[in-house]
Amino acid sequence: MTTNGAGAPAVVLLSGGLDSTTVLAYAVDAGFVPHAMTFRYGQRHAIEIESARRVARAHGVRDHIVVDIDLRIFGGSALTSDLEVPKDRGVDEMQRGIPITYVPARNTIFLSYALAWSEGLGASDIFIGVNAIDYSGYPDCRPEYVAAFERMANLATRGAVEGTTPVRIRAPLINLTKQEIIELGLRLGVDYGLTSSCYDPSPSGVACGRCDACRLRLEAFARAGAGDPVRYA
Fold it and tell me: How far is residue 2's CA from residue 172's CA, in Å, rounded to a whole number?
């Protein structure tokens, strides 16, 4: 892979899941010095925060901060409330409409925090693991959304307006299938056993194997001809 970071700082949004872990490995491989940002936002699957910590240590990030915000006050998502997480859905069903696991404005909020930190660090590059191919229909995972946020960010920060630190929102996985993401991560030496993708894991972190995230992940590992190293119920 072409090295283009040349030791430059970059903010990486790190949830502890498969995609964000792959993006972190990608940023490191590209020569960036990563500063990882994770959110404790009131999600029911907070086990992912420990996964993010493990991943950050494994990839030697310069800084890893966990930001506390509470998106539960806005409601509207099974990930931040007692609403039931959909289970046992086929891929065709997942692609019809925006599911209840969508968290209102989540990526916009996360990217805004990352933008503020990047400005403080003097970093132009923000990495996010959004994906528009094998995903659950979230509107803030599309290329047009990422491009629009980048345009806004370059109107919003001093460094961008003064021309010293233009903002680049890097979404290297956005046009890859989940299988291709896993294959990329394996080439980069990612230990997917450190990650957590499940929307409804047990208190000990065992994945349910039945939610949309688990089903997409399991199918992708199978297509990649690799075993998924996380534990499933």
Answer: 13
Nearest Cα residue to 130 out of 4, 13, 1: 13
Please answer whether residues 197 and 208 qualify as being in contact, where contact means their C-beta atoms are separated by less than 8 angstroms. no
Residues 85 and 199: beta-carbon distance below 8 Å? yes
User: CA angle at residue 172 from 169 to 176, to 5 degrees?
Assistant: 140
| pTM higher than the cut 0.90 | yes
- Report which of 149, 145, 170, 17 is spatially closest to residue 79, judged by C-alpha positions: 17
List, for residues 19-31, the tens digit of each pLDDT value: 999 999 999 999 9
Residue 159, amino acid: G
**Token pair for 132:** 């528009």
pLDDT digits (tens, 9 = 90+) for 121-142: 999 999 999 998 866 678 999 9
Fold entry, domain 9-223: Rossmann fold (3.40.50)
Residue 85 CB-density burial (10 A; 0-12 exposed, 13-18 middle, 19+ buried)? buried
Spatial contact of 78 and 86, defined as CB atoms under 8 Å apart? yes
If DSSP codes are grouped into helix, strand and coil, which group holds residue 44? coil
Strand order in the sheet with 63-68: 63-68, 33-40, 9-13, 125-127, 168-170
Q: How far is CA 44 from CA 2, 48, 70, 77, 83, in A?
A: 38, 10, 12, 10, 10
CA–CA distance, 198 with 210 (Å, rounded to integer): 9
Q: Where are the domains of the chain?
A: 9-223
Taking only Cα atoms into account, the Rg of the chain, rounded to an integer number of angstroms, comes to: 17
